[in-house]
């Protein structure tokens, strides 16, 4: 059995966790909206057509923010199409995803749905085919109390009170050639600055997210951040990061090491942001918004399912495995480990489209494997992140040299200490994890749950929705004062909780 040691000191902290780290993302893509969260004919649908079974599943994830409406979709979106009387809303072609958009679900419906799932809306504006004027008008529609054209138009749609949307994304992945209206870093920085300026003049209380590179592998990564931030630093509160990892090569050790690369991406983006601030002699610090992250490695046939230009096409419906859940757990550990600078996180997406929740049209909804590590981290990962010093053997892979066989994040709140750990030892052995918890006078109890399956390709399906689900550890951790010993089963996600 492999061995690893964790050393924690109660006084050695990283940061308080911003609850928005556990956010979600809803886009007009595939079946996320139509037959996902909105299906008026569904047996559980409420008066507004929202699926109650999905609402319940989302509420259990405790997502404080929800990004909308995209994603690539937003770069061609006319928000005016999705408000007002539904029988007068135009049907459009969605060029981003080759679908038909009926616009029966729009900004007001999203704001209502957010209230039902206890999330605050995080809206993106179209800076692809549109610009600062339309972005400002949307802020006025959503946030101004009344007495103007756009705010009174909202009132005429039945929303007397403003939505008070506080978090806004200045476009989406504007460096990507796949994006409608993609731009150079300078072009984007200029339009983002002007849009952000008008938006903040309309409502000075809002915060803005600037598009970073679409991924660390982009040819322009680094230069993009440097140039766009130089143009829009004053209006920017957060820099956006996006990343997806997959196992198309069927290389499990490399796949499980990918969350370490996510950590490097964060550190590099922080350094770039701080460098721009230093060059401007600014005391302002820009934090990170990791507003798209997940496992995603579909084949082309999964991307282009169903007839083009149809509503609610089956697209990007990733079927998540036990192995995928381990990587998602590792990514959550990475986000927690950088809680000092990563303040917002949005798993992409939430329902059907590369999401932790799946639904059948007219049928049931269920939890995919990746639902479980997210649920545990969102429930127990709120408090103060401690510096987790891990001494463990490492392994080499195509993705990374020297990846530790165990990943750990530790979060302290008033009543408990929670340790999240992934055993990714490629030898498939259990790991004995010992903990030296300095500054903790006594630990009064311990709970240890694991997510594990002998088959790393095991799935949760409509017919077998609980095949991969949390269970009590087979061996309870041994406590000795402020020290413990726990057995992490092979290829497992572990949640170890101590009462203080």
Topology:
Blueprint: E1 2-9, E2 13-16, E3 23-25, H1 52-59, E4 65-68, E5 92-94, E6 99-101, H2 107-116, E7 120-125, H3 132-143, H4 149-156, E8 167-170, H5 185-202, E9 207-210, H6 223-232, E10 238-245, H7 252-279, E11 287-295, H8 300-303, H9 322-337, E12 342-348, E13 357-359, E14 365-367, H10 371-380, E15 384-386, E16 389-391, E17 394-395, E18 403-404, E19 406-412, E20 416-423, E21 431-438, E22 445-451, E23 471-472, E24 478-480, E25 483-488, E26 492-499
Parallel strand pairs: 1-21, 3-4, 3-12, 4-7, 7-8, 8-9, 9-10, 10-11, 11-12
Antiparallel strand pairs: 1-16, 2-15, 5-6, 13-14, 15-19, 17-18, 19-20, 20-26, 21-25, 22-23, 22-26, 24-25
Helix pairs in contact: 3-4, 3-5, 5-6, 6-7, 7-9, 9-10
User: Into which percent range does the helicity of residues fall?
Assistant: 10-25%
Q: Strand share of the residues?
A: 25-35%
Reading side by side through the largest sheet, how are the strands ordered? 3-4-7-8-9-10-11-12
- Quaternary organisation: single chain
CATH homologous superfamily name of the largest domain? Glycosidases
Give the radius of gyration: 23 Å
For the termini, the CA-CA separation is 30 Å
Under CATH, the topology of the largest domain is which? TIM Barrel
Outline type: globular
Structural class of the helix and strand makeup? Answer: alpha/beta
Total number of domains: 2
The stretches of 5 or more residues where confidence is low (pLDDT under 50) are none
Biggest sheet, open or closed, and with what strands and sense? 8 strands, parallel, barrel
Mean pLDDT: 96
| Secondary structure tally, helices | 10
Number of strands: 26
The name of the CATH architecture of the largest domain is Alpha-Beta Barrel
CATH class label of the largest domain: Alpha Beta
